[in-house]
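Bit of a strange request maybe. I'm writing a small parser for structure token strings and I need a real example to test against, not something I typed by hand. Could someone generate the tokens for this chain?
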Amino acid sequence: RVEAEYVGEPRPTGVLGRLLAPGGGTVVHFDRFLLPCLSQVEYRLGDPGRGSHLVVTTAFTPEAEDRVRLFSAVSFRLPLPGWLVRPFVGPIALKVLRQDAWMLAAQVENVKRFGGERFAHTELDVLGPHVWHLLRRAARGERGEPSEPARRKMEV
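Reply from user aminoacidic:
Good idea to test on real output. This should exercise your parser:
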């Protein structure tokens, strides 16, 4: 697995930010990838055990060379009652996943247009190089710890 912690991230803007942190503040934010096919985004704000906590876990199931089906679970604990928040969390999570799907579809089209994958990574791509490293090792049947650090903190 690989995990990135984003340090010093301000509360998100918009409805999601107001639900997660009505009083503002700094978000504890982790992104994770777990072999073979899970991604996870976690946001925490406020006192442990009493503050806001949102976790979105997504499983990717390949269906074809250029098609993947997503299955997601959204778990949350907020200062507001669940019945009040639930109608907003689902649509917001779906909007984020639709944006991701749109971006991935554009990437697939570019891979087709240019005849293959030629990805480049910058220091802002915190997880990408590590995910590719894990996937290549798994494809070769290698087990054990990766040869490079798999945990990074990113100052926001």
